């Protein structure tokens, strides 16, 4: 499939960003494959939803970021979704090892885990809009047992901080992906900048990660490239330009994103909830509109795969989970624990999307979507300045 952009295998994926930052700080045991200059403070800012393609298409609205975008893009990994990408960034590992394999995915009790809220639901509960917390039943530290890059940095004597929305404190995803850092809760551009600058002024080697999510939010609601999205992009560009100007000497700023985004025409979507053939032999449907994990009943995988492949046609690619693993979509290694979280069948979309109008009405109605392996979703900026 010529539209498929496979995850990175050459050191320019999200999993390579923080190890590169530690190498730039002079911490032994880490290698810089991104090109971050030697520094005393490494500041990494993730702008949710800022795809490489979108940045180039709308460069006039982001002159500072565009001025840094002369090199090659990075790749988000698979699927191109926030929970997976943030965990790849925080652990320095791909999804096949860290185990956060999608927007939703199968968990041990038989339901679907929603890692952004670390809650689960079965099919009946989803219809009633109910979710149950999994923080005790499947602790994030057990679901994602590998040490994070932040833990490794702290053990090496680095001052490690994260400046992220206050609501992220002690959430399952924060515990799974970002543990080992000093949490600094923020609410807007102002205190985000203040926390990043405070970290940059620390005495010793410092790693600080910051997150901004409103560009992604407006892309989902109005579509990427819409006027609200463009106005937010302009604000993001000014914020990062101002931050870069104020960072003291010896600081390196790296700007990344977790995925790009595409606009989905509601009239072109495939609806699992109104198409019985897509539910025959199916136990659970996870993932999201552009990348679905389909969990089959015992013995039904091949029939499910054939039915989905026939229905999706040339709008996407349908393959078994084992085929996706063999293609390296989840990284060079997939542990046995993680294999059970990956769908028996995967559907990734070239155009349109696969919605669930009854069970996921909110997600299904969004204009902007991501998750698949098109260039617009996979390529992300890896922008570096300072040092």
UniProtKB/TrEMBL annotation:
Matching InterPro entries: Alkaline_phosphatase_core_sf, Phosphodiest/P_Trfase
GO molecular function, one term: hydrolase activity
Protein name stated in the entry: Type I phosphodiesterase/nucleotide pyrophosphatase
Classification lineage: Bacteria, Bacillati, Actinomycetota, Actinomycetes, Actinomycetes incertae sedis
Lineage: superkingdom: Bacteria
Annotated source species: Halopolyspora algeriensis
One Pfam family it belongs to: Phosphodiest
